[in-house]
Amino acid sequence: MTRRADPLRHFASDNYAGICPEAWAALAEANVGHAPGYGDDRWTAEAADLLRETFETDCDVFFAFNGTAANSLALAALCQSYHSILCHETAHVETDECGAPEFFSNGTKVLTVPGPHGKLDPAAIDHMVRRRSDIHYPKPRVVSVTQPTELGTVYRLDELRAIRDRARAHGLKVHMDGARFGNAVAALGCRPRELTWEVGVDVLCFGGTKAGMAVGEAVVFFDRALASEFEYRCKQAGQLASKMRFLAAPWVGMLRGGAWLRHAANANEMARLLERLLREVPEVKVLHPVDANAVFATLPPAAAAALRVRGWRFYDFIGAGGARFMCAWDTTEEDVAAFVDALKAAVREGR
């Protein structure tokens, strides 16, 4: 009996991809000799400075192992236990954090609001704040936006400004879940500052893992007053790496030569190619605009099952229906073509 060979690359998640060369090289460079622990090393200092250069402002930077910790600790820093966090109903902090934002904030409630294609409707902020203001209801404190959204769409600058205006009108802080922030910057062709502090973002959780690192997220406080004692939250939550240089060094490798943006642009381009090829298959329907590196589509059930039998992996429980296909920093045109060819063959067999 011969063993089935898996496809070279999957489309289930950009987490499936390996470490990109720039991050790997920086890790190897940091792995020479001894260095102080707990962030007192030159790599951590350089990574933080490079992030300040990237955003063109003086901000406070902290490094965490993963996105759940980064988002949850950042939100906890903005809230008291009797507050609430407003986010889109498909937001990762609501659907995929296992209650971590509530846990780390000692009970802050996450309240969801609607909006088309994964984007929070600014008018919904007014509704959620005004619907109740009595002491029996958790007081709204933060608006959390996901950029790009869980449905692969990207907030434009005017959309972010509208959210900022509604948030500021109600005295709310703005948190951005940027697990794929590089893909949003590449998609819009703007400067990172334009997507963050210039449109009112108080704290950004900048994703490194999905960008091509092994692990590591950066929590960037543009409102530095909100970062007070954040290092204690990191320590208490098990996020203070003793060998911090290995969390920080990949950021140096990614930022100093612009690899984070190049790789994000490639992932986006491959998603657009995948969308174009999927639209050529009459039995497939693309569900949302493809702004970044995700494509959502409905497949004939028999074809989806046949693809999985052949080893292709993709999720159908994320978002608002359909299957999700993620392109990564290392996805190639050949990968996309191979998948679509397999899909077409599966559709023909299912007729």
Description:
The structure is a single chain. It contains 13 helices and 10 strands. The chain has 351 residues and is an alpha/beta fold. The protein has 2 domains: 21-255, 3-Layer(aba) Sandwich (Aspartate Aminotransferase, domain 2); 260-350, Aspartate Aminotransferase, domain 1, CATH 3.90.1150.10. The strands form 2 sheets. A 7-stranded mixed β-sheet has the order 1-7-6-5-4-2-3, sandwiched between helices. Strand 8 and strand 9 form a beta hairpin. The longest helix has 20 residues, at 259-278. The radius of gyration is 21 Å and the shape is globular.
List keywords for this structure.
351 residues, alpha/beta, pyridoxal phosphate, 2 domains, globular, EC 4.1.2.48, Aspartate Aminotransferase, domain 2, seven-stranded mixed sheet, Aspartate Aminotransferase, domain 1, three-stranded antiparallel sheet
Rg of Cα set: 21 Å
Main pleated-sheet profile = 7 strands, mixed
Spatially, the strands of the biggest sheet line up as: 1-7-6-5-4-2-3
Uncertain runs are none
What's the helix count? Answer: 13
Count of distinct structural domains: 2
Briefly characterize the structure.
By secondary structure, this protein is of the alpha/beta class.
List the helices and strands and how they pair.
Elements: H1 21-30, H2 42-55, E1 60-64, H3 67-78, E2 83-88, H4 92-95, H5 100-104, E3 109-113, H6 122-130, E4 139-146, H7 157-169, E5 173-178, H8 181-188, E6 203-207, E7 217-221, H9 230-236, H10 245-255, H11 259-278, E8 285-286, E9 294-298, H12 301-309, E10 323-326, H13 333-350
Parallel strand pairs: 2-3, 2-4, 4-5, 5-6
Antiparallel strand pairs: 1-7, 6-7, 8-9, 9-10
